[in-house]
Structure formats: structure tokens, C-alpha cells
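From the pipeline queue, job 12 of 40. The input is one protein chain; the requested action is below.

Action: predict structure.
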Amino acid sequence: MRFGNLFAEARFQMTGLRINLITRAIHSTVFITSLRFSLFVDSQNDYPYPTEGFLVKSYYETAQSTLGGDIAIQNSCSIIKTFSAQALFILSPYEVLSAMAIKLCR
């Protein structure tokens, strides 16, 4: 079974900020305008324990002052998992990279 989605999303939001550090008080309102693009593709054969196929989840989000907002940020994430029935065990690249990152941080 193959399943896929491609989304585009626009957000307009007002966020209130209040900071009180004993004597100083900051009260402000921030306007955020952002665009988000996301992709989801699933070709796994079984749920919740697949033996074949792949899974792709990714998104990119940007908020720029040129879009009319007060602040500029960028955010992105990608997860790719592959499964094969020919192996004795199932291991996804995400888990391998996470294990490598843990070893590097120690």
C-alpha cells in the first residue's frame, strides 16, 4: 500500500509575551507570519511492525519579516525509515544516526 501527502500551510498569529524579572516587566505582542511545507510518504506493508517498504516524513517552515511578520525563523526536519525482509533484523537509518550522535556526545 502506498500513501502520500504534500501540504502547504500559511499561518498568521499574534503572540503575547510577558516577562517579569523581579523589577523589570516586559509586555509585548509579536506578529508571526509563517509558511510551512510538509511531505509524508508511506509504503510500508504492515502496521505497526512493517517488514518491507519505506517511510518519509519531512517539513520546512519559515517565518520572514518580508512576509509581514515581526520576527524571522526557519525550522526543518526529515525522518526516513527503510525496511527490508531480507535482513535478519530491521534497522532504520534514523536509529543508526541517533546512535552515532549519542556516541559522539559521550
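Job complete. The longest strand covers residues 3-21.
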